[in-house]
Amino acid sequence: IDFSSTLLGKPSHDALIRLQDYELKFLEIIRKTVVGRIEHDRKYANSLSQLANTSIKIENAMYGSPLYNAWKEIAHSLSQTSLCLKKSTDFLQSSTLDKVVALTKDKTALRKYYIEHRERIDHKFVKTIYTELDKKHSNYIKLENDVAQAHKAYDAAMEKGKLNPMEKAQDKYRKTTMKLHHAHNDYTLQVMEAQLHQHQYRNAVLPELLSGIQEMQVQSVEALKEALHEFLTHSSPCRAELVSAHKEAENAVINIDPNTEYQGFVDSFSTPLEPEAMVTYEAGKGEAAQLAAGEIVLNNLSMQGVEHLAQGFQDDLEQVQIEIDDLKQTLSNTRRGNSSVQSKHKQTLVSKHVWILMSKQLECVSVKRQLTEQENLQHMMQNMHYVVHNAIQKLGDNDPPVGLHLTELDSISTASGSSNFEVKNTMEGAKKHITLIISTPRTLYDNHKSVMNQSKTIREQTWFHGTIPRAESLRLLRQDGDFLLRESNNAKGELVLSAKAEGQVRHFKVQNTDNGMYRFEGDNFTSILNLISHHYTKREPVTKKTNCLLINPVCKDKWQLSHDDVSRENLGKGNFGEVSKALFIRENIYVAVKTCKEDVDQNTRDKFLEEAKILKGYDHDNIVRLIGVCTDRQPIYIVMEYVSGGDLVKYLRQNADCLLTQHLVQFCHDACRGLAYLEEKKCIHRETSTRVVTELHEMLRQQAIGVFGRTNIPTIIAGRFTTASDVWSFSILSWEIFNCGAQPYPRMTNHTAKEKVEKGYRMPQPDRCPYSYYTEVMQKAWEYDAKLRPRFSELVVTIDRVLRTLS
User: Fold this and answer.
1) Does residue 303 sit in the same domain as residue 265?
2) Looking at the structure, do residues 663 and 723 belong to the same domain, yes or no?
3) What is the DSSP letter of 7?
4) Looking at the domain assignment, is residue 94 inside a domain?
5) How far is CA 518 from CA 454, 455, 477, 522, in A?
6) Is residue 574 marked as binding?
């Protein structure tokens, strides 16, 4: 049986669809039958169990009665029968029924796959050999008429002998002739393309599609054969009068041969493909009759156009070769994955192999089909490129011949102009610009002892803020009398008292005396805590000149932690410093710690702390959670929720064989929910925090893509950052996920990718990406006009709908 050589015609196509519809109905009947048998056998087993219990509710015989012993055996038989039935129904429920349901889903997917790709290649076939050919032929004939009219006008002008009309007539005649020659070349190449396309459609593309369908149909028969065999085996009746009928059905199932299952179908509906269309070159009868039929015209009128054609074919061939190489690699990986599954289950039955591999086989068939189409496209383009390139090679270093011989005029001027093309960069970046104002809670203490805790060190006091920026202290001190202690931003280890008096914030450096004492202006004290406590409890001004009193200590907020609260181990390096895994001792959980390098400037340190301020304002399952900030000494720590699992790209590549489409869509759904939350916050751009937000966006992605860590979203800056640019980049992330960590725009430089996107190129649908996800999410997110792209909140609803169809 060979679908690829016998089911080529349109009637065969319609019959194959009807067959698939019938098989789906057939599977539904089988499913209902299995469910009904399970229900009835379960009820029967329960009844037998109750009956067996009833049958032994009698005391032992008064003597060794053979009748009683026989009855005990009958009761035992009832009990054993009940247990056997329960075991069989459990197996039918957990194995056979699940297989029938799974097979129904696979058959539905196979039907959809066949219809979509058959319609696609048929449409492309009609478009190539009819629509495009007729269009270019009509244009060719029109230009031929235009040249004839221009020729007549030129002859008339030459007879009159007036210079100005002769110039105009000659120029028009030359231009229309040049257009005719270009149209001739286009028509010639279109005829060649139609011939080659038809040959490939009939002999490669369509047979490959049908061959793949046959392979899947045969495997589905083998899978259903196994399910039916299980059903008969575990529902075998115990009554003698039904054994014969059961045996006959069992033999019938055993005799099923998947390789000959569709022989009757082929015999009934076998039809050949329609006769080949007559694709021939139709020579012109006027001006075009002078041009060589079916050959490239190369002269001074067409030279530039032919060179452009040759370069275009060369560029297209390079791109097709890249796609072919990628498809070959994908096919190799898929086959290797199937081989690993086979070797893993080599001890099981052959039918088990078929069952495990069936869900993966469609992917392999699809890749083979794509590879065949691309190789045939390459072959067609190579032939057309050879024709054009060979015409140029034959010319060599010689000047091209004259395409149109015209009478020389005394004064002919040719005006030439140049046009400037402005390329607009449409590939928008993925970085989010956010402005977020976090208000820090402040606590006022009236109890001097609770404020100045002598049992704690100065760095453990609630009003010691560590190495916060000077500007942050200005924001925290709101009223006269407010004060806090911080570490100097300019000199490591030096402490500064910041306090507000008479509406102005002042900063007092804690001075060290030669004898190890501490002071501001007046008396010396043995410790900084005693110094601050003295001015606080006695209400003595810090300096007489400022008359600054310490009344209200401003305490750290809940996010402030101590360095002693975390125990680090290095994970890697970030833009500001190291990223570490640490134990948060207070709660005995693992956290991620980002460290600011000690040798950075103050501006960089301030921007590092700005990350923490932004994270304070977010609370979402798909966004990494801030635990706190350690500023009591250098270096500064930002403590965040630890996201276990490692790198997402590595995870996807290592687990590509076991990840289902539903899992990949769920990853995208998680990412979209996190980004929709950021969109809901109505974040805006603030110039002073652009780099801070860029760094933060990398951290936010950790949770947005699930629990598997980071992934790199390719970002090409397009001038400004908006939610619409994030939507574009989310679609790029989706493409990476469905391709299990593959690099987007493969084998393209940034410049090449940018130019292709500008011209309308969009990456093709990944093989593991649902069609509805690609069309409703990715393609809409890649709209050229940013206003037409959906919002993240809309994408969440769309992806949720796609997920429900997969469950």
Assistant:
1) no
2) yes
3) B
4) yes
5) 16, 19, 24, 10
6) yes
CB 732 within 8 A of CB 775: no
Amino acid type, 589: I
Cα–Cα distance for residue pair 51/45, rounded to 1 Å: 10
pLDDT tens, 255-264?
767 777 667 7
Residue 270 maps to which CATH number? 1.20.1270.60
Answer yes or no: do 264 and 373 share one domain: no
Q: What is the pLDDT of residues 614-666, one digit of tens each?
A: 787 788 887 888 888 888 788 888 998 887 766 677 888 888 888 999 999 99
Same domain, 677 and 773: yes
* Whether residue 541 is found in the same domain as residue 663: no
DSSP states along 266-312: HHHH-BPPPPPP-------SSGGGGSPTTS---STTTHHHHHHHHHH
Q: Is the C-alpha dihedral spanning 294, 300, 304, 310 positive or negative?
A: positive
Contact between 681 and 793 (Cβ < 8 Å): no
pLDDT level of residue 346 (50, 70, 90 thresholds): low
625: helix, strand or coil = coil
Residue 617, in any domain of the structure:
no
Helix H or strand E segment including 584: strand 578-584
* Structure-block tokens of residue 460: 């453990």
Q: Could you tell me the residue range of the domain that residue 490 belongs to?
A: 448-553
pLDDT-above-90 percentage for the chain: 37
583 vs 407: CA distance, rounded Å: 92
418 vs 647 pLDDT, higher one: 647
750 known member of a binding site: no
- For residue 736, the domain's CATH number is 1.10.510.10
Q: For residues 480-509, b (16+ Cβ closer than 10 Å) or e, as one string?
A: ebbbbbbbebeeeeebbbbbbbeeebbebe
Which pLDDT tens digit goes with each residue over 711-731? 333 334 344 567 888 899 999
Q: Name the one residue in this structure whose structure tokens are 């009398």.
A: 481
Which two three-digit tokens encode residue 57? Answer: 């509710």
Taking CB atoms within 8 Å and a gap of at least 24, the contacts of 470-474 are 470/498, 470/507, 471/606, 472/609, 473/498, 473/505, 473/507, 474/505
Which of residues 282, 312, 333 is at a domain's end? 282
Does residue 106 fall inside a structural domain?
yes
Question: How sure is the predictor about 141, in pLDDT bands with cuts at 50, 70 and 90?
Answer: very high
Bridge partner list, 171? none
Q: Is 573 annotated as a binding residue?
A: yes
Instruction: Please tell me whether residues 260 and 317 are part of one structural domain.
Output: no
Distance CA 370, CA 273 (A): 22
Structure tokens, 783: 């709209």
594 in a labelled binding site: yes
> Is residue 528 helix, strand or coil?
helix
Q: Give me 315's structure tokens.
A: 């560029």
Q: Is 105 annotated as a binding residue?
A: no
Q: Looking at the structure, do residues 674 and 780 belong to the same domain, yes or no?
A: yes
**Per the annotation, does 576 bind a ligand?**
yes
Q: Which residue type, as a one-letter code, is found at position 207?
A: P
Q: 379: domain CATH number?
A: 1.10.287
- Strand duo 482-487 + 626-630: pairing: unpaired
Whether residue 574 is contained in a domain is answered as: no
Say how many domains are in the chain: 4
The string of pLDDT tens digits covering residues 91-112 is: 899 999 999 999 999 999 999 9
Tokens of 517: 């004492």
| CA 781/CA 786 separation, integer angstroms | 9
Among 553, 570, 585, where does a domain finish? Answer: 553
369 and 208 in contact (C-beta within 8 Å)? Answer: yes
Q: What's the Cα-to-Cα distance from 210 to each of 6, 16, 171, 460, 727, rounded to whole Å?
A: 9, 10, 55, 76, 38
* Maximum C-alpha span of the chain: 143
578 is in an annotated binding site: yes
Q: Does 744 share its domain with 723?
A: yes
- Name the residue among 116, 102, 104, 112 with its Cα closest to residue 23: 104
